[in-house]
Amino acid sequence: MSNPSWQPWQGAPQPWQPHGVPSPGVPAMLASHADRERAVDVLRAGYGEGRLEKAEFDRRVARAYAARTVGELGLLVADLPQGPLAQPMVVPRTFLPVARPRTNGKAVGAAVCGVLCLPTFGFAGIPAVVLGQAARSEIQRTGEGGDGLALIGLVMGWMSVAAWTVILTLMLAVAIGGG
């Protein structure tokens, strides 16, 4: 695998211009040790994938350790998948996490009231039903999450209301029949 002769890492290194004047087109920011190591890691990955021959890899690694600017390092890895170093990595939208919809507050309230029906002897049943109905209509309109919580509040609330209805009906029947 031979590389065209126009590539900047071919041949002898470019001499530095006097008084620290940067070469045209090459960023003049000085490279740190970490920058050099990142460039060498990119070169190692390219060599491991078979994109570079051993001689080319050795030449580029030597140039990376001798590089003075970030621009020189970018030129060494520009033709490899992880390079150049100066470009930020863009994650395709496909791999970004999906934003979860916000949970409806009334649905949470309905579920809490529904669970509190037992310790409050059913007095939280009516608020559970009202909050559950309001939450489900808001969820359908806005697309928020929490439909399951609203449903729990509705079921527990209606069970509480039904139980109180049965108990009050029986007490009324006993009072009329015994009275």
Characterization of this structure:
The chain is an all-alpha fold. It is 55% helix and 0% strand. The chain is built from 6 helices and no strands. Helix 1 (33-48) packs antiparallel against helix 2 (54-66). It is rod-shaped, with a radius of gyration of 36 Å. Residues 1-6 and 9-23 have low confidence and may be disordered.
Low-confidence stretches: 1-6, 9-23
Fraction of residues in β-strands:
under 5%
Give me the count of strands. Answer: 0
| Secondary-structure element pattern, one letter each | HHHHHH
Instruction: Give me the number of helical elements.
Output: 6
Helical content (DSSP H or I, runs of 4+): 40-55%
Q: Give the averaged pLDDT, no decimals.
A: 82
Distance between the termini: 106 Å
- Tell me the Rg in angstroms: 36 Å
Give the structure's gist in a few sentences.
This protein is mostly helical and 179 residues long. The protein is 55% helix and 0% strand. It has helices at 33-48, 54-66, 70-77, 105-115, 125-142, 147-178.
List the helices and strands and how they pair.
Blueprint: H1 33-48, H2 54-66, H3 70-77, H4 105-115, H5 125-142, H6 147-178
Helix pairs in contact: 1-2, 1-3, 4-5, 4-6, 5-6
List the keywords.
disordered N terminus, about 180 residues, mainly alpha, about 55% helix, single chain
